[in-house]
Amino acid sequence: MTKNSKDLRSNCPINFAVETFGDKWTLLVLRDLMFKGKRHYSDFLASDEKISTNILADRLQKLDENGVITKSSDPDNASKFIYSLTEKGQALLPAMVEMTAWSASYDSLTNTPAEFLNAYKTNKDGLIEMFKSQFKHQ
Hints:
CATH class of the largest domain: Mainly Alpha
Helix content: 55-70%
Strand content: 5-15%
Radius of gyration: 16 Å
């Protein structure tokens, strides 16, 4: 389903993003898909932030309804689903990279890998392409 700002508070692009991602869990689910290779429901539950099952189910459903992710049956286990980023979801990668770098700059306790920060500083476009190439193998 393609969503637009027709039924939202305004047609402001920031409002559209806030209404799509404006809670404390959605961007973490996207982080896990983009950077940590998580693809199954149980993978997301194992994240450090300890998302509850009902919140996770809701966020995955909303991301699916908004066309940011897809959900498909796991060919290796019929009782599991695989979650993947759509083209729309993959288009968020540069923004997620920027948020990660920004947070690392201002959080003295960041757990951002040094390799990520080095690649960001020396070849940001190459870093983004490296992550994009991983999407093709999912």
